[in-house]
Amino acid sequence: MDFRERFAQHRKDGRYVAAALVLVLAFLTLIYYLIQRGRDLPSVLVTNKVLLFVLVYADALLILVILFVLARNMLRLWLERRQRALGARFKTKLVATYVGLSLVPVLLLFFYASELLQGSIDRWFSSSLRSVLEQSSAVAQSLQREIGDRNYREALRVARSLANVKLDEAESRAALTPRLAAWRDESGVAFLGVYLETDFLNAVVDPQSGLNDLPEVGRALLIEAAEKGRSNRVLLPAGGRGRLILSAAAGTAPSGTRRLVVVAGTLLDAVTSGQSEELIQSYQTYRQLQVQKRDFAASYWLMFVLVTLLILLASSWVGLFLARRLMLPIQALAEGTRRVASGDLDQRIDVPTDDEMATVVDSFNKMTEELRRNREEIERSHFDLVAVNRRLAEERALVGAILENLAAGVIALDPEDVVLSTNAAALDLLGQRETELVGRSLKEAWGGSERSRLALLIESAKDHPHQSSEVSLVLGGERRTFEVKVSDLRDGAGRNSGKIVVLEDLSDLIKAQKLAAWTEAARRIAHEIKNPLTPIRLAAERLRVKHREGDPAIGELLEESVVIIVREVGKMQALVDEFSRYARMPGPQLAATAIDGLVAEVVALYRDVKPGVAVRTALAPGLGEVWVDPEQLRRVLINLIDNALEATEAPGFVEIRGERLVDALGERLVLAVSDAGAGIAEEDREKLFLPFFSRKKRGTGMGLAIVQRIVSDHNGSIRVTDNLPHGAVFTIELPVR
Amino acid sequence: MAAWSRLMLLGLALAASSEPSIENLSVSVNGGQVLVGFHLTNGLDADTRERIASGLPTSFLYELELMRDRKHWWDHNVDATVIEVVAMYNAVTREYLVNTKQGGRLIESRTVRDEVELEHAMTEFAAFPAFNLESDPDRSRFLVRIRVDLGPGAVLGIIPYQRSTAWKESNKVRIRAVEP
Fold first, then answer.
1. Nearest residue of chain A to residue B47 (CA atoms)
2. What angle do CA A180, A185, A186 make, to 5 degrees?
3. Cβ contacts (< 8 Å) between A297 and chain B: which residues?
4. Exposure string over A258-284, b if 16+ CB within 10 A, otherwise e
5. What's the mean pLDDT in A253-272?
């Protein structure tokens, strides 16, 4: 059963409560009415044991009902607390408060009313009241007793007077009437009768007394008097006015067989007898009430108990009902909160209340709905994130696989130049294990070894990002040349988070290039040798033909052919000499050379050599002296300026710039010769420094090869770049020491 | 035996001796009538006397059962009757009216003038014709048992109960069949 059904059920209970309250009210009204009517009822009925029975068992039944209701609710609360049901503690407090609030005042009222009742009863049966009533009754009875005694004395006097009268004789009996009348008048009694035991003989009545007829003297009175000598009776006279007090006295009968009984009677008037009887009856009533005092008190006490129990039952039940009703939305909220806490966000409380709890319930439902929407949003985001993470993981795995399978070595560095990660190719190229590299700074990993030059190169790349450099290292006894490319590593926000170093082993490429260069050189040498050989062969063959023909002009032809052969051999000789010089080029004789002066000397050689093309210098101040072979450096400059002048059309200029550069690789001299010619085609740049490569109509193609050889012998480097917008720039870097 | 235990036994004996009981139960037969005589001792205690003196009607209910004796088994209840004696005091005439009813029918009404007569009238029964066996063909051994309801009492003053004596059984009497 859900909370809505339970609440609907309890709403119906509300009608039951109203009906029960109306019934209790009607019952209490009935009891009040009966109590009011009870005042007019005889005390015997009020203190009837049947009433006591009914009250006792009604009280017992109500006590049982109350105990059952309370015990049932207490047991339920105890079970709920034991099962740690939500809201059980609060409900217990609420029920205890309700029941306590109803119990305490009702019990206080009950005890106060009981004490009041007991006090009232004690006052009703106070000793002073009893004394008054008792004395009043005694006075009334003494009045009767005195009258009776007087009657008895008169009756006894008459009986003694008649002791010697023969009453069985007619004369005596006839004379009896006036004697009785005289005694009556003398004694003042209202009635005087003579009996022979139970047989009537004669009697007189005083008509002035109000007694209209002879009274019916009972046989019992006469018998008792005959037996005991005296007896008394109180009779209601004929006509019902007053009371007739009779006293009988026995005398001795003259015959001696039966006793003479004389009865004297005095009539109490209605007022006196009524008052007397009322006094006696009042005392009797008091005695009856006193006898029934305990039953009387018990009846009223039990009625109090009954009413108290009814109120207690009603208040306890209403208290329990209100507690349950109040707890329903609270329990629903607690249960809903527990379910929400356990993750059930579909929980919705539907308690039809219209009080402040409705606001709380409504807020709870809105909060739950909001939570549910947020959770769905989070779940969607989570799924998206998981998908993104999965994709990123796949991409990372792909990148990892690519990096691992990449021939080039890749090293990731943090901003402090600590190696974050590396691929297998880098470890293979550098001849190191991952543990020797990853997690260590470059200085720590490479310091004190040949690889420190690589570290210096990477350090210097800060100033020239995205530039590639070549470095040649001896690793494992083998010289290897690497192209090193350093790039900044930036995060999504564009912040610098380190560097990426790409190492490419150029050793095999250089070998191949050298092989290709030498192949090309061989091809060119062969070509250069073959060029003069053809005229030589043709001249020799024409001589042989003319000789066979016996041509007389053979002498001229011989002269002419010899000239050709000598000239072509001379060319070949020159070619061989040039090559020999290239091959036998001596090592540089290093000397402290003033670069400014050397450049100025060379530039002076080309002043006005080509009209319209100026040769100018832009040397940074303080170039100073550099340890170089001045002759070889002069030859380098001459070759480069020759080429530049030849490439530059007038008007134009050739510029020689010079500066000192200090960075992580050390201090270097940088000389650059730039022209404004057509520039170097991209496809020619790789072959530019090979022997016998030339695009010029004249020339051996050994100039730039010799230049590169000299620069290389000085542990320097040469590179060619475009001179924007036209021309080319040949840049030489030489270590200062 | 300790003094207190003697006192306790004495108290119990006194309490038992002051309890109402049926004494001198006798059964005789006159023709078909079963005549029962008995005496209720300690029937009129102080409370009862006070109640009577206050003028409240006070009654004793004598429950009589005629049983046929059966050996080795429970006796068979042949007949039962209730004798109700109601006493009421008139303080004006200072007389006690004592009415005796059997089965709800008034069979005697008399007036007595003192408590001795009153106690006698309420507690003494001599050859009271309680049962009539003329219609019963089986005249074997019979006995009469009797108990008196002395009116309601109250425990703690509020819980009513019926005060009564224990059942008293008579000797077994063989009743011969009446000759037609």
1. A291
2. 95
3. 157
4. ebbbbbbbbbbeeeebeebbebbbebb
5. 81
